[in-house]
């Protein structure tokens, strides 16, 4: 006997599945980090991955994109600065704000990390079309927008 689920039940399952996917991504990347003995954590990798796409952003943008609060983001960036992977520079538009830039060491790490990230997302999307992934992304983004209101 098949029961039809209402939209709230389906949304709950989607949220759980999204969280589960994040857990699997984290487990895979944590394993790769340990195997390759890279001095990085999953949280730091999230920040670096964003900076690889868009270097020179302020801490608030990084906090928003990684869903971290300001104090956690400060701690994480301090950790990346200590590892000499990023540097803080004064924002020419707002002297109170600091922009976060990759250092040469941080950029070099992308060559090692990039293939791992591509590999895991290729594995995650096996058997899916680009249109399916785009549709899923649009749905999750719309749900997030609804929750932000």
UniProtKB/TrEMBL annotation:
<dbReference type="InterPro" id="IPR000835">
    <property type="entry name" value="HTH_MarR-typ"/>
</dbReference>
<dbReference type="GO" id="GO:0003700">
    <property type="term" value="F:DNA-binding transcription factor activity"/>
</dbReference>
<feature type="domain" description="HTH marR-type">
    <location>
        <begin position="7"/>
        <end position="145"/>
    </location>
</feature>
<keyword id="KW-0238">DNA-binding</keyword>
<protein>
    <submittedName>
        <fullName>DNA-binding transcriptional regulator, MarR family</fullName>
    </submittedName>
</protein>
<dbReference type="Pfam" id="PF01047">
    <property type="entry name" value="MarR"/>
</dbReference>
<dbReference type="InterPro" id="IPR036388">
    <property type="entry name" value="WH-like_DNA-bd_sf"/>
</dbReference>
<dbReference type="GO" id="GO:0003677">
    <property type="term" value="F:DNA binding"/>
</dbReference>
<keyword id="KW-0804">Transcription</keyword>
<dbReference type="InterPro" id="IPR036390">
    <property type="entry name" value="WH_DNA-bd_sf"/>
</dbReference>
<keyword id="KW-0805">Transcription regulation</keyword>
